[in-house]
TrEMBL record:
Belongs to the IAA-amido conjugating enzyme family. One of its GO terms (cellular component) is cytoplasm. This is GH3 family. Residues 348-427 form the GH3 middle domain. Keywords: Ligase.
């Protein structure tokens, strides 16, 4: 467990981080011992260990599992059975993960004690950030958070996202501490109306522009949604500031009371300044121009979020992009000890007290090392990972997960003291599949990254994308939906057909040898297609998933869409279509080299 500390004592916090990354083996052994001794009598643990709580019995007898393996236990708790099926402490909330199981969000158990640990974990990072970025503590944070609708299980257990749980765990008596650190009042960030909340958080940020030391959002995609909202509504913001009157459509009591402390009088000078910046022909560096004292943008930019880095760099005007944490609904795991590194170099050091961590080695072709479906997977301890190898984290937590496969792929890049740090590679997830070919999320992201570079000379940017398999004709083929944007404001989006066809070919050339062989020799895969959709199409896609219970704060554009209602939204917004006109190359030896 994370020891108690004073988050305002920078020296003590940095010393604690040094200790947690030095005494890794001892801390990990004590964490596992504490988890097993606490939970030895639960139905799940006792079924495998029968009272034995030593480390070797744990490794020999407790299986490595996926969500589907433990789902029956979670469903039983959701339906009213006691928490001691899996945990000795009461489960206080079931977190809705951004991942799904059979199209339904996963439900991850969390105790109040574990929640408090995660909140402490978050505050531990601030002193590290202050150490690396001068002047960060002289202002406040404009971090955009949004709650999402919550529900209850049949027995009254709350079902929430992690962000909503975090925000609603701030007690009214301590909300003044939140307001000391954040520009947007806590009362506004917990407004249930996302649109009104976003509007008022932005308005607070504009009114307090000289007091903003950093900006951000949980994910890069959600921060860009906020920038797009600002682009669509800046004249209204200027009107509110110029007149000192809040727009009539803002009616939520929390938003009205929260903004009332900021919008106290007309400020035509500020309104004119914002208007001057926002009305320029390009929105390049708009963040730095509107918030001149900001030191960084803090948001997750690894994994699937890496594709948004060029857009963030375009809007940020050179502000550092800091990717602070690595974690999931299942467990908070690591921090970035070098927050000012290049986005491509971000690695997360595992903090040893947040759970018991093991790692399942996977090969570069995404298979488990020494893959044998009949054999037990081989896992190694945190201190035994090897630099340059790829792993899937396997976590054991105080909230009732035991040897649970998280599903991420991490590459070990080194050690900070005795704690390994990892680069997030992607999800171990097949996003497209035709015949013998399986395209993983990581490989699709790399292919699209290579292709979108062809847009840069034409002042075009890839705003977002997803994909699907079109099997309506033979042979089936991959379809990519691209939403484009221009670096020049109000210019027409007319992508050149030669450029777009070359983008199709570049994606194909970047995919693996199995795909390229299927295209060239076997002819069981048709030419790849890119469909350019209207601006705002991906907002409509997001709204569809939000209507199904997703959260704005945690929403990630799916890299493939299989739900018919979802891809029909995109089809209804297609403006132009392009096919690959060339056949990708392949060599026989590539199939054996794993490329």
């Amino acid at each position: 467990m994370l020891p108690k500390f004073d988050p305002t004592d920078q020296k003590a916090c940095l010393s604690l981080l040094e200790d947690l990354t030095t005494n890794v083996k001892q801390i990990q052994d004590s964490i596992l011992e504490a988890i097993l001794s606490r939970n030895a009598r639960t139905e799940y643990v006792s079924g495998f260990l029968n009272g034995q709580v030593d480390k070797q019995s744990f490794k020999n007898n407790v299986p490595v599992v996926t969500y589907e393996d433990i789902r029956p236990f979670i469903d039983r708790i959701a339906n009213g059975e006691p928490s001691d099926l899996i945990c000795d402490r009461p489960i206080s909330v079931l977190l809705t993960s951004s991942g799904t199981s059979g199209g339904v969000p996963k439900l991850i158990p969390l105790t109040t004690e574990d929640l408090e640990q995660r909140m402490s974990f978050s505050s531990l990072y601030a002193p590290l950030l202050n150490k690396h970025i001068d002047g960060l503590s002289e202002g406040k944070s404009l971090i955009f958070y949004f709650v999402t609708r919550e529900s209850k299980t049949a027995n009254g257990l709350m079902v929430r996202t992690m962000v909503t749980t975090f925000l609603k765990s701030v007690k009214p008596t301590s909300s003044f501490l939140w307001d000391r650190l954040h520009i947007s009042p806590h009362v506004i960030t917990t407004c249930a109306d996302t649109t009104q909340s976003m509007y008022c958080q932005l308005l607070c940020g504009l009114l307090e522009r000289d007091n903003v030391a950093r900006l951000g959002a949980p994910f890069a995609s959600s921060f860009l949604k906020v920038i797009k909202f600002l682009e669509d509504h800046w004249p209204e913001f200027c009107s509110n500031i110029r007149t000192g009157h809040l727009s009539d459509w803002i009616t939520d009591p929390q938003c009205v009371s929260g903004i009332g402390k900021f919008l106290t009088a007309p400020d035509p000078e500020l309104a004119s300044l914002i208007e001057q910046e926002c009305s320029q022909t390009s929105w390049e560096a708009i963040v730095r121009r509107l918030w001149p004292k900001a030191k960084c943008i803090e948001t997750i930019i690894t994994g699937t979020m890496a594709q948004y880095i060029p857009l963030l760099e375009f809007y940020s005007g050179g502000l550092p992009l800091t990717s602070s944490f690595y974690g999931s609904s299942e467990c908070f795991m690591g921090v970035n000890f070098n927050p000012l590194c290049k986005p491509c170099d971000v690695s997360y050091t595992i903090i040893s007290c947040m759970g018991y961590f093991e790692f399942l080695e996977v090969e570069k072709d995404h298979q488990e090392a020494g893959h044998d479906p009949t054999a037990k997977p081989v896992v190694v301890d945190l201190v035994d990972v090897k630099i340059g190898h790829d792993y899937e984290p396997v976590v054991t937590t105080f909230s009732g997960l035991y040897r649970y496969r998280v599903g991420d792929i991490l590459r070990a890049t080194g050690f900070y003291n005795n704690a390994p740090h990892f680069r997030f590679v992607g999800r171990q997830k097949v996003v497209l599949s035709i015949d013998m070919d399986k395209t993983y999320e990581e490989d699709l992201l790399k292919a699209v990254t290579n292709a979108k570079r062809l847009l840069e000379p034409h002042d075009l940017m890839l705003m977002d994308f997803t994909s699907r398999v079109d099997s309506s004709s033979f042979p089936g083929h991959y379809v990519l939906y691209w939403e484009l944007g221009s670096k020049v404001k109000d210019s027409k989006l007319e992508p050149n057909s030669d450029v777009m066809e070359e983008c199709c070919f570049t994606v194909e050339e970047s995919l693996d040898a199995v795909y390229r062989k299927g295209r060239k020799n076997d002819k069981n895969i048709g030419p790849l297609e890119i469909k350019v959709v209207k601006p705002g199409a991906f907002d409509k896609l997001m709204n569809f998933f939000l209507s199904r219970g997703s959260s704005v704060s945690q929403y990630k554009t799916p890299r493939s869409v299989t739900i018919e209602e979802a891809w029909k939204i995109l089809e209804a917004n297609v403006e132009s279509e392009f096919f690959s006109r060339k056949i990708p190359s392949w060599e026989l030896h590539e199939l054996h080299s794993g490329r």
